[in-house]
Amino acid sequence: MSPPLHLERVGTGEGLVMLHGYSMTGRSLLPLAGAFAADYEVLVPDLPGHGASSAAVTRPGYDFDACIDDVLATVESTGHERCHWFGYSMGARIALACALRRPDRVASLMLLAGRAGIADKAERKLRRAADNAVAARIERDGLEAFVDDWMALPIFETQWRLGPRFIDAVRRERLSNSAEGLAGALRAMGPAAQPPLFDALGALDAPVLCMAGALDVSFVDAARDLAARLPRGEFAAIPDAGHAAHTEQAAAVIAAMSEILRRAGGPADT
């Protein structure tokens, strides 16, 4: 039976799942996957609403729990009983939710620019209204207008120093999605659509590395707080990096990931 989500598999060894950020696709993580492919089989899905998994969010009633179901089923279809997990931004939220749903499947967890949700009900309601408005704007104005607005957000400002060739590649990656898919993903999987996970964090016994680019101030605070709530949580600020630290300072992120993977047991033959 085919997995629910499109999946790229790179390398051999223990399973290492990598989940991308909103409006990107699994392809955006292939350079990072390549750094670990000698020791791990890296599993890189297109998340629901993105890339070749765009249609997933069009199912009636699709929500955050359905997304977690699809990601776990896709990973389980590979035959790996227990994996290491990495997630960036939206992918970090999803990776954390997967780990809390199936802690027996998690050898280690590495979160970059991730959060455990929005605890305050009023704030969550306001964010849901804002996300729904963005989703409607994507459908009304089209993908290109949305991508240009999204890339101009202050959270991505530090990426522009990587030069026009890099920015053009990121823009083309985002434009490879569909307006329908991204609108549906925002409604089903946005920060306000995610149930707050704070109360469940104490039950996760795997080692968890909570990373944020040092220039990404609000996510530095969130990552530090998240690490403090986890039994085996660790915090790392990636120097001279913003939100997408894995592209801005790839070597530092790879080094931090490699260290926690080593301490979580290291690569082993399968």
Task: Characterise this structure.
The chain has helices spanning about 30-35, 65-75, 90-100, 120-140, 145-150, 165-175, 180-190, 215-230, 245-250, 250-265, and strands at about 5-10, 15-20, 40-45, 85-90, 105-110, 210-215, 235-240. The chain has about 270 residues and is an alpha/beta fold. It has a seven-stranded mixed beta sheet with strand order 1-3-2-4-5-6-7, with helices on both faces. Helix 2 (about 65-75) crosses helix 3 (about 90-100). The chain is globular and about 50 Å long. The protein starts with 6 loop residues before the first strand and ends in a 7-residue tail after the last helix.
Write the layout of secondary structure elements.
Elements: E1 7-10, E2 14-19, H1 30-34, E3 40-45, H2 64-76, E4 83-88, H3 90-101, E5 106-112, H4 121-141, H5 143-151, H6 164-175, H7 179-189, E6 208-213, H8 217-229, E7 233-238, H9 245-248, H10 250-263
Parallel strand pairs: 2-3, 2-4, 4-5, 5-6, 6-7
Antiparallel strand pairs: 1-3
Helix pairs in contact: 2-3, 4-5, 4-7
